[in-house]
Amino acid sequence: MVPPGGTPHIAGAADRAESGTMRVRRARGMRRGRRPVRIRTGPPWRSRRALLLLSCVPGLAAVVALVLCATGVERRAEARPAHALAARPAAAHHAPRPHIVPRSVWATGTGEANSVARTPPPARYDDKVVAVFIHHTDSPNDYDCADAPRIIRYLAAGQTGVRDWDDIGYNFLVDRCGTIYEGRAGGVDRPVTGAHTQGFNHRTSGIAALGTFTAGVRVPPAMTHAIAALAAWKLGLADVDPRASVKLVSSNSYSRYPAGTTAALPAVAGHNEGYMTSCPGAALTAELPAIRNEAARLQGRRTPSPTPEVDPHRSL
After folding, report:
1. Which of 74-83, 84-93, 125-134 has the lowest average pLDDT?
2. Which residues of 249-277 are buried (b: 16+ CB within 10 A; e: fewer)?
3. Considering the entire predicted model, what is its pTM?
4. DSSP letters along 198-222, please?
């Protein structure tokens, strides 16, 4: 029985069990028969293991995520078809810009120089250059290379005077010593619209060899090397293979193709490819395959190589 005014007696610290439990004793006089109630006061070994596992969950999750990610990447790589892996765009092929004598060297001279050559009209431009046409100027071959500026002035005077053109038609001219001259005004590194190949002046550049190179005439190696270097650089600005075939649209029915016709022409073409003429002469025409290969080599391309067809309307 509980003494009058008393309270039940609670076991002290000495009565607690070793396992971290506390036994609640019945007060004197209470009926026996029920098992004592145990209150847990500390985590048992199982609880401690659960906490340890919970603390490892972030690290385990990271490891599992990495494994799944790696597995997924491998599976995606294995599932990707071989042609998709090979469809990456090839590296662009460019060539260094050769030395080009500026227009001012010949246009401001005396003699055949005229006001049009000194102060040309505003240039017209295309979006890019995808082909070059090779010409010869049908002038004497036995000139002194120091006299090349005077010869160019003479050519410019004839084209702007007798033919009533707005400027010299060729974008560039090359002498027999391999010196390259800027021709038509507008900037050598820009896609200036020339007046060199009727029907195909757009998206092309005209390179004229000073001289006449008909059958049996020797073409100076310095000249062909300079033409190749110029073609490699100019076509490389649009990443065009000099050995390729390109699609060009004729703008004039006086060319070899009626206006509006799409023609497949060499990226390095002779004037006679687009117009009814013997220019650039049989001797220089025979050098064109070697010029194409040399230009491709200067662009860092392997030789020999197939000559794919290039659509100039595609994005480059």
Report:
1. 74-83
2. bbbeeebbbeeeeebebbbbbbbbbbbee
3. 0.70
4. TT--TTEEEEEESS---TTPPPPHH
